[in-house]
Amino acid sequence: MNQFVQVLLFGVTLGGVYALMASGLTLVFGVMRIVNIAHAAFMIIAAYIAFFAFDLYHIDPIISVLITMPVMFFMGMAVYWLFFSRIKGAKRAGELTVLLTFALALIVEGLLGYFFTNVYRSAGPSYATEALYFGRFFLSAGQFYATLLSIALIVLLWAFLKYSRIGYAIRASMQNLSAAQVVGVNVERISMIAFGIGMALAGASGSMMSFLFTFYPAKHWEWIAILLALIVLGGMGSLGGALAGAFILAISSNLIGYYFGPTWSPITFFLALFVVLLVRPQGLFGKKLEA
Amino acid sequence: MGETLASSKIKPASSTDSLKTPSKLQKVFLGILLLSLLLFPLLQFVVGGLNYWLHMLLYTFMYIAMASSWNIIGGYAGYTSLGHNVFFAVGGYFTGVLLVYYDVSPFITAPIAGLVSLALGLIVGLISLRTRGPAFIISTIALLMLVKIAFDNWDYIGGTNGITMPPILSLSLNLVKFPFYYYMLLIAIGAVYTSYRIRHSKFGLGLRAISQDEIKAEVAGIPTNYYKILAFGISGLFVGMVGGIWGYYLTYLRPNIFLIILVAAQLVLMSVLGGKGTVAGPVVGAILFIAIDEFFVANLGYTELNIVATGLLLALVLIFFPQGIVGSLRERGKLPAFLDWD
């Protein structure tokens, strides 16, 4: 029983970080209907920024969020302007954007590999190797702080969407893009900002990734597959769904890893994805996906 | 239904009612091309040292076969698959396992590997094709990841280390590429011919209707589910066959070679570059892509820049020429006759 609770605890804390990673992805899909295959590749860029900030300038990876988030926000706006503002209204736009972000992911992966080589990296702040004890249970300190920060950022995102003017506009665009346009939302500008926010969240995720996990340029394929599984399970474009999906899958993959061996825990995500597509293609909270 | 198709940019139904008979010019072109490809290896006995060119050609044939197959589901039916190298891997491992454990030549088992891939395509299609658009693409990526994890952890087929196969020892250096060359040529011809026949059949017309508007197609009485699942299966067939031969040619199989997403990306890029949904498009795309790729390898080295080039090319083509070479040329009325097989 103790073991079970311990594994559950690991799952819940991991779920918090997954939720942060998935929130940016689902936000971008919700507003623009862009399945951003390059989301995880941008997380890796941020992870490299955080890694080198720590390695060269001894900036704490958690503090580096203050660097990665704005940098990725502006990079996101630039990427949106360069790639996506051009193909608005194209035939089969959904598919086109998937392929385009796929191409973007390849470009990012190749450039990162060229400049930083394919060495496995991980930033090593002191708390990455410490453990915190809660009665009979323990957590890695890094994981604990990362989860706290993730939850704080998600709350901030929620408050921003709920109470700011731009947040109103973003939520309106998520519900119905053309209706939002009719009532005077500058959809083009909101899309650009939403893409920037999505990338900023990827930036924060990258900062966490830099000390929680090892990373290398091609690692983003594994991450994006996991993140897609999370948001498909929750319902694409639904923020609440992304959170639910993150916790459900983080906990179940940890349990499966514990009972069947760690090599099988990644399988959880893809099996879940297939089952969801088979049984309930719109996910737990999503509207039905249109082609 | 006829109206929807006629009003779209796709060539109207006139060419699809019956098999279009190729013009005399096209027949001559095709005859010369096939004859020269058949006879080319014999030059080896005259000048010698052609193994590099034989290698490049058979490599091109392989990708022509794969891109043309991909085009059946990705181009005609409009269901973009980013997990098509699963068939490639399944074909490769099927013949590889039979060779290593039971000593059966892949030249005999490759067609069976194709059928296994076809069956796999039908089963996966039953699940994945319940979704459309972005969700379908995601499901194919998930399939790829799933198979990669399974193959990485399956000890019988060597896990991450893969399988090493005995090379063909009995052939001299001059002859060693010959069986692979002709086999790949044969599969490529089969794949392109199948793609051509499907393009000019009722089945192909149904697939193109699905890519235009699936609900209308369904209403018009096209058995959309049956059609697209069948198309997915057929598009796995030839990919599995070339996989079976390619593994033997390489003499080793490893999940890291067959099951990386870059291979799937290349198939998509070739079709998009040449022109999705056309017969000649994937062929043109495959030839052009391999030529460019080889240029980059020779000039920049086989490194990360190769990945960047693949991505950049894909992005540029998608933004500026979404119709691809064949499609763009046709739109401008400048498509040469030897590329016009639609």
Question: Could you please describe the fold and organization of this structure?
Answer:
The complex is a heterodimer of chains A (291) and B (342). Chain A is mostly helical and 291 residues long. Chain A has one domain. Chain A has helices spanning 2-32, 39-57, 65-84, 93-116, 141-163, 165-175, 177-182, 187-212, 220-234, 239-260, 265-279; strands at residues 131-134, 137-140. Chain A has a two-stranded antiparallel sheet. In chain A, strand 1 and strand 2 (137-140) form a beta hairpin. The model of chain A has no long low-confidence stretch (mean pLDDT 86). Chain B has 342 residues and is an all-alpha fold. Chain B has a domain at 48-260. The longest helix of chain B has 27 residues, at 224-250. The chains are: A mainly alpha (291), B mainly alpha (342). Chains A and B meet through helix 4, helix 9 and helix 11 of A and helix 7, helix 13 and helix 15 of B.
Low-confidence stretches of chain A are none
| Chain-averaged pLDDT of chain B | 85
DSSP strand (E) fraction of chain B? under 5%
Count of alpha and pi helical runs of chain B: 16
End-to-end distance of chain B: 19 Å
Percentage of residues in helical conformation of chain A: over 70%
In short:
Chain A has 291 residues and is mostly helical.
Defining traits:
heterodimer; A: two-stranded antiparallel sheet; 11 helices; 2 strands; 73% helix; B: 342 residues; mainly alpha; 16 helices
How would the blueprint of this fold be written?
The complex is a heterodimer of chains A (291) and B (342).
Chain A lengths: L1 H31 L6 H19 L7 H20 L8 H24 L14 E4 L2 E4 H23 L1 H11 L1 H6 L4 H26 L7 H15 L4 H22 L4 H15 L12
Antiparallel strand pairs in A: 1-2
Chain B lengths: L1 H6 L16 H16 L3 H4 L4 H26 L8 H18 L3 H23 L4 H20 L10 E2 L13 H22 L2 H11 L1 H6 L4 H27 L1 E2 L1 H4 L2 H14 L5 H21 L3 H17 L3 H8 L11
Antiparallel strand pairs in B: 1-2
Helix pairs in contact in B: 4-8, 4-11, 4-13, 4-14, 5-6, 5-11, 6-11, 8-11, 9-11, 13-14, 13-15, 13-16, 14-15, 14-16
